[in-house]
Amino acid sequence: MVVKINENYLKLKNSYLFVEVARREAEFVENNPDADVIKMGIGDVTKPLTPTIVKAFKDAVDEMGNADTFMGYGPEQGYEFLAKAIAKDYEQYGVNLDTSEIFISDGAKCDTGNIQEIFGIDNKIAVTDPVYTVYVDTNVMAGRTGEMEDGMYEGLVYLKCNTENGFVPELPSEPVDIIYLCYPNNPTGTTLTKDQLKVFVDYAKENKSIILFDAAYQAFINEDNVPHTIYEIEGAEEVAIEFRSFSKTAGFTGTRCAFTVVPKQLMAYDEEANEVEVNPLWNRRQTTKFNGVSYPVQKAAEAMYTEEGKKEIKEIIDYYMENAKVIRDSLTDLGLEVYGGVSSPYIWVKAPNDMDSWAFFDLLLNEANVVGTPGSGFGPSGEGYLRLTAFNTLENTKEAMARISKLEF
Ligand code: MLT
């Protein structure tokens, strides 16, 4: 007898995209120890937690250090105080959630990766192309795909997003059961209007499909007709799960806090085509495999919803969006094709002279000491593009643009 591995892992590309980006960056730094590298690759924030959040965090730590207020295990689904604050926040969009529909977790990456577990292995999955790779890789690991060919896994349906369709995916041309959508989009930084998103909600209703809607970047929306939550679209609560995160919104990439909304009305089907509520399945999964987010972290997240907290967060988001504007304007002035960056911290730039993504990545790294993320890492339609993030400081963002503008393309 020998130990057998999960063969599905062998279908995966060698490393997670950001691991490969970090590897190339580390290699460059090792060979060029004096280079001042500006990181605009992974979407990691640079601004610290705000004072209101830090105070709540510290106060909660003090509570943990006092026998009278100490907390042990919390609810796996998260504390009611945070779920209530989240539900209240949704009210501004005309959305009424019960706190039992909100599951607090340690990340939208984990939740968007784990959610597929509660659905059958035979479901047909659609993803956009380019795509946040977690949706794809977790379905590969689970065994829902064949091998990868030409950058696409056999068995998945890819909805192309490119300049021809204005980065608005078309409906799947074959029936699908589950559709992953991320808007504002990672990686392209583009958005869907309410009408464009409604097309998908209507499709899901008609076809009894489920939309897994990643809204991790909703706080960056600056356009009126772009929905902040899929539940702004009528009937979406019957067909959609929504993922939200405090990471980019409130600087929690290292602190870890997020949540997932699984509406009570959302149904899937058993082998006999009987309706089954999805909410209890996710609850079952979380209570078995997850022990909740720490109390101080949830108190810190709750502070984001206070008047002062909201004000502080908005200032930071405006700061990042000013960076996004600097990037957009500078690259546009250089004659490059630029997308995103209006309602998103991501800017999607077409590499000049038909360069491929990794060649453009290497050029920027070697000649400007600027790290981006190669678009091809997000899927075949990303080939020839590079993603830059607005999460650095304004000074570094300007410096990066000044360096890039000196390059000869
Ligand atoms: C990204 O750069 O795409 C994100 O940081 C990834 C993530 O949030 O996991």
Structural features, described:
- This protein has 409 residues and is α/β, with parallel strands linked by helices.
- It has 2 domains: 7-48 and 308-405, Aspartate Aminotransferase, domain 1 (Alpha-Beta Complex); 53-306, 3-Layer(aba) Sandwich (Aspartate Aminotransferase, domain 2).
- Helices cover 36% and strands 15% of the residues.
- It has 12 helices and 17 strands.
- The strands form 5 sheets. Strands 2-10-9-8-7-3-6 form a 7-stranded mixed β-sheet, sandwiched between helices. Strands 13-14-17-16 form a 4-stranded antiparallel β-sheet.
- A hairpin with a 5-residue loop joins β13 and β14.
- The longest helix has 27 residues, at 307-333.
- The model has no long low-confidence stretch (mean pLDDT 97).
- D-malate (MLT) binds at residues 42-44, 109, 186.
